[in-house]
């Protein structure tokens, strides 16, 4: 028996004294040291009684130990559930309850509030702080540096990642060991990752991009990464001459272009820049090439599928497109009304099938059935077309979704909070262009007859319920929302009306 994910990404590095993580203070953590720490954490999980298949919810700052917790879950056969550090207690309570997590790992700062949630749900709680201190590591340090890897099958669950939906209720996307491993191995080949690569890692590690793309590719290639706590422009500019590759959301690239220190010389040592999670404007692609001589490689993925398409490493990286389906991934454009495949050139919904596609939504069979067809094709909710050369273009979304700085925001979730406020008849939340985040959130409020709602008080409620990145940047009050003859709110009209609000 074996454990494909652990063996394929972590176990292959047993005994290697080559660097894995390069930290900003100059410290280098070798593959061997990293595996020792993760084995110690795996021993803690076993000692506190966790069993294979149990869920481990982690809301922790980015640190080597946080990454070792992910490895430990793989080794112990636990399902890893990373959570955005910006989530509020309200948001977290739902994820923890819905997933039935047996263990919550959180920063010491959140222990009190999450402790109550844990108690109510019968989960255990351990702390892990940004500097690696806390109850988890205090116990781990006394543990053996090896752990008998738990047997798993490729189809067993490795991770849950929560993704919101148009109804406002988040869904736990169930990712298997094979989903993660196969995608990482494919990307290593496609993007020519090798042991001597050094990835500049400034993404968060609670989402697909930073964890399953950037980190898993580094692991599968046996290479190393400059592991930064977050995207900090000064640190990224300082670290770039030591790196060979970088992965980022478009905001990373527009911020770099906005800084005069980002020059051709600074990027001379780099061999690859990858962008994804949100549309990269063609003009950013062009400006980037003019400044550095590098063409950014844009790829397309999502939580439920990992990566689906990529521009070619060799060959033309075409601005405004997301390239070709990855080897092993089938992609078709279908008519949203009847699911029939459309000819190339026509716009329709993007569907994908392959070893990368998730197993379904945790305990939500109806939602799974609505999006994942019996024949294995997943309806992404993105609208696109395939051009005459086979490049996939994403032209819009068939789902009410805002992507701000690479984070997904579902308007329904915010509308539900706004609609609950005193004096509010209804609301519509839309995404409008933003120079830094690509898109940002605008809330449109319609007051009840004669009421004049207090928008400051509304923002207090919003702050309490929702993570900062979901907060409307502005609230606008209107007498009524534009509707079509069927009574449906026409968000496109609102988007048009307010498209210039944050851009000149
Ligand atoms: C931070 N803020 C955001 C925000 N990030 N607001 C809207 N959208 C965001 N993305 C808030 C901060 O809390 C702060 O609030 C204010 O905005 C400005 O802070 P900042 O210092 O400028 O934010 P910063 O820390 O620099 O973060 C911006 C960012 C970060 C772009 C670096 O959001 C980021 O790392 N994004 C990457 C997201 C990602 O990994 N997505 C992958 C999903 S996986 P205040 O109150 O101080 O003003 C996926 C699949 C796939 O989509 O295909 O990859
Ligand atoms: P998430 O659910 O966070 O995984 O976000 C996935 C969504 O991000 C996709 O369904 C797309 O709408 C969007 N996305 C990811 N990569 C790209 C890209 N390169 N261009 C445009 N949209 C993208």
Task: Compose a concise summary of this entry.
The chain has 504 residues and is α/β, with parallel strands linked by helices. The chain contains 15 helices and 24 strands. The protein has helices at residues 4-10, 31-47, 64-76, 89-99, 111-121, 135-140, 177-190, 208-221, 233-239, 250-257, 282-292, 365-371, 411-419, 455-465, 491-497; strands at 19-22, 28-30, 55-59, 79-82, 103-106, 124-127, 157-163, 171-176, 198-201, 224-227, 245-248, 272-275, 297-302, 306-310, 324-325, 330-334, 348-353, 378-386, 392-397, 402-404, 407-409, 424-434, 438-447, 474-477.
Task: Annotate the secondary structure layout.
Elements: H1 4-10, E1 19-22, E2 28-30, H2 31-47, E3 55-59, H3 64-76, E4 79-82, H4 89-99, E5 103-106, H5 111-121, E6 124-127, H6 135-140, E7 157-163, E8 171-176, H7 177-190, E9 198-201, H8 208-221, E10 224-227, H9 233-239, E11 245-248, H10 250-257, E12 272-275, H11 282-292, E13 297-302, E14 306-310, E15 324-325, E16 330-334, E17 348-353, H12 365-371, E18 378-386, E19 392-397, E20 402-404, E21 407-409, H13 411-419, E22 424-434, E23 438-447, H14 455-465, E24 474-477, H15 491-497
Parallel strand pairs: 1-10, 3-4, 3-5, 5-6, 9-10, 9-11, 11-12, 12-13, 23-24
Antiparallel strand pairs: 1-2, 7-8, 13-14, 14-15, 16-17, 17-18, 18-19, 20-21, 22-23
This protein binds malonyl-coenzyme A (MLC) and adenosine monophosphate.
């Amino acid at each position: 028996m074996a454990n494909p994910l652990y063996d394929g990404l972590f176990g292959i590095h047993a005994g290697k004294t080559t660097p894995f993580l390069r930290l900003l203070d100059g410290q280098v953590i070798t593959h061997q040291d990293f595996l020792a720490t993760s084995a110690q954490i795996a021993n803690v999980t076993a000692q506190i009684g966790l069993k294979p298949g149990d869920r481990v919810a982690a809301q922790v700052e980015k640190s080597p130990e946080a990454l070792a917790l992910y490895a430990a879950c793989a080794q112990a056969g636990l399902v890893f559930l990373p959570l955005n550090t910006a989530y509020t207690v309200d948001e977290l309570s739902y994820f923890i309850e819905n997933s039935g997590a047996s263990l919550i790992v959180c920063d010491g700062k959140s222990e009190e509030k999450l402790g109550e949630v844990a108690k109510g749900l019968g989960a255990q709680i351990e702390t892990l702080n940004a500097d690696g201190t806390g109850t988890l590591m205090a116990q781990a340090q006394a543990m053996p540096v090896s752990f008998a890897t738990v047997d798993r099958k490729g189809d067993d669950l490795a991770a849950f990642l929560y993704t919101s939906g148009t109804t406002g209720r988040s869904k736990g996307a169930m990712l298997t060991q094979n989903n993660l491993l196969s995608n990482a191995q494919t990307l290593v080949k496609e993007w020519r990752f090798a042991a001597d690569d050094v990835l500049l890692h400034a993404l968060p590690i609670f989402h697909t991009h930073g964890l399953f793309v950037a980190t898993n590719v580094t692991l599968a290639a046996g290479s190393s990464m400059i592991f930064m706590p977050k995207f900090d422009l000064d640190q990224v500019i300082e670290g770039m001459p030591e790196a060979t590759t970088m992965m980022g959301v478009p905001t990373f690239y527009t911020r770099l272009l906005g800084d005069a220190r980002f020059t051709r010389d600074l990027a001379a040592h780099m061999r690859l820049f990858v962008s994804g999670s949100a549309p990269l404007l063609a003009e950013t692609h062009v400006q980037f090439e003019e400044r550095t001589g590098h063409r950014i490689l844009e790829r397309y993925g999502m939580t439920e599928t990992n990566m689906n398409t990529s521009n070619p490493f060799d060959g033309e990286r075409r601005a405004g497109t997301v390239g070709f389906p990855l080897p092993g991934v089938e992609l078709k454009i279908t008519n949203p009304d009847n699911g029939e495949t459309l000819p190339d050139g026509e716009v329709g919904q993007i569907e994908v099938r392959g070893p990368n596609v998730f197993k379904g939504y945790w305990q939500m069979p109806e939602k799974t059935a609505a999006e994942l067809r019996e024949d294995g094709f997943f309806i992404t909710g993105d609208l696109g077309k395939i051009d005459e050369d086979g490049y996939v273009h994403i032209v819009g979304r068939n789902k009410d979704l805002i992507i701000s700085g690479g984070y997904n925001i579902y308007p329904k979730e915010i509308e539900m909070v706004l609609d609950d406020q005193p004096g509010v008849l209804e609301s519509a939340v839309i995404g409008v262009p933003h120079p830094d985040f690509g898109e940002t959130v605008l809330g449109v409020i319609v007051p009840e007859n004669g009421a004049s709602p207090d928008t400051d008080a509304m923002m207090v409620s919003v702050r309490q319920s929702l993570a900062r990145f979901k907060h409307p940047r502005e609230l606008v009050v209107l007498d009524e929302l534009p509707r079509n003859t069927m009574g449906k709110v026409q968000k496109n009209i609102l988007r048009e009306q307010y498209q210039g609000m944050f851009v000149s």
